[in-house]
Amino acid sequence: MTQPRSGRRRYYDIFSHFYDAFIRLHSRQNKDDTRDFLVDAAGLEGKIMPRILDICCGTGSVILAFKERYPGSVCIGYDFSSGMLRKAREKDVSGQILFIEGDAVALNSDESSFDVVTCSHALYELKGEAREKALREMKRVVRPDGYVLLMEHEIPRQPVTKFLFYVRMFSMGSKDSREFVKGGLEPFNKIFSRVTLSHSRSGKSKLIRCQQ
Description:
9 helices
């Protein structure tokens, strides 16, 4: 892992102690809206023991939602922060979700292992080559008839939040920020044969649905 990524890992290890409280404050009533929207988009109804991988799983809200919806599923949460994973394991009262520490650019899984691979509000953390490597890894581990589901932030409407959003995006660098601010699909079309875009009911998140 590179030094900048190591720095981000330490940041999230510390942030894990406050992360859930921050999300509750930021999302309020929309947290379930965006999470359920993502789970609905997976289209796993009728699948017997589906396999789901949540990359950059944080404290586990998305993979826990999948496990609740599909109790017979095989669920794996993957994150580079040991602090985030510790919180996720504490929330998994069933003890049936496997949490793995690792980097999104090098997934510890075989080819075509999962029906669904998700990454929620985290891909913007990766820049340029690292993001492309992560996307190619997602494509490698998803089954030919499966989906890679990528949820990202929409541009906020509230002026102060919108300003902070732009500051955060442009801190990533000009090329990276343009891709995410404009919501372009070019980085995904380069890698996947079919890419579609939809929007959550709250209007706060967008979902990029990719197929091999």
